[in-house]
Amino acid sequence: MQLSVAKIHEFATTVDVETLDIIKQSVEVNSIIAGEGMKNDYGLMIGKSMEKEIKEGIRAYDCINYSMMIAAAAADARMAGADFSVVTNSGSGNQGISSSVPAIAIAEYMGKNREEMLRAVTISSLMAIYIKAQFGKLSAFCGATVAASGTAAAITYMLGGSNKQIKAAINNLGAGIAGMLCDGAKMGCAVKVACAASAALDASALALNNVEIPGDNGILSSQAELTMQNIATVCNEGMPETDNVILKVMLNRT
């Protein structure tokens, strides 16, 4: 069976949520490390710095900053070696965080019930797997960007969006941050995780206002599935040399 955005949406919104053991585990486990990142000092403390900025009035306490803060905190703890597990997505811990924690945080902020949250994380997780499968195991594109497409779809679902608007959100996300580089696992990945969460909410908000970046823009397509394929093609065929250049820069910096 050929997978599609519509089929993922249909499955996630009709499946018995009590059968989604791996999703429930993802919510529980990844929420714990996010909470740990907010409680204690790990890595660059991106999440805790955002919390401080909110208290100082530099940032607003709103849905977007809350999801960025919680997601970044989870990545802070993970990349600093905190002794806590993470449920991965497509073999990546940060992608597991990016495909679950922002959706969890937004559900919490907006007072969504457990079922809505579990269905949203199911959409996000499956969408991330669907996209990542087209990239292969490793790529020069940041996995948080891939997961953000799933998050955009999950947010759109939680806010009452249609299947058409979910597809629009994915296209909007592709028009925004597709191509964020991966330059290795490190503490600074928390910034990329936060940026991906922010971009996902922006893409969803536009879609819910019936704004979709047209398919003739750049590498986008009129269909979200084809946009994903286009991004994967650029990654798989166009980025190997970029990967070599990134490595060269890393090995020769002063």
Short description:
With 254 residues, this protein is mainly alpha-helical.
Description:
The protein has 254 residues and is mainly alpha-helical. The protein contains 12 helices and no strands. Helix 2 (21-39) packs across helix 4 and helix 9 (163-177) crosses helix 10. The radius of gyration is 17 Å and the shape is globular. It starts with a helix and ends with a helix. 50% of the residues are buried. The mean pLDDT is 94.
Helix content: 55-70%
Overall mean confidence score, pLDDT: 94
What is the percentage of strand-forming residues? under 5%
**Tally of DSSP β-strands:** 0
Q: How many whole angstroms does the radius of gyration measure?
A: 17 Å
Largest sheet: none
Q: Which structural class do you get from the secondary structure elements? A: mainly alpha
Question: Uncertain segments of ≥5 residues (pLDDT<50)?
Answer: none
Shape: globular
Number of helices, counting only DSSP H or I runs of 4 residues or more? 12
Termini separation (Å)? 51 Å
Could you give the order of the helices and strands?
HHHHHHHHHHHH
Which keywords apply here?
globular; 0% strand; mainly alpha; 254 residues; 12 helices
Set out the fold topology.
Elements: H1 5-14, H2 21-39, H3 46-55, H4 63-79, H5 93-98, H6 101-109, H7 114-132, H8 143-158, H9 163-177, H10 189-208, H11 224-238, H12 240-252
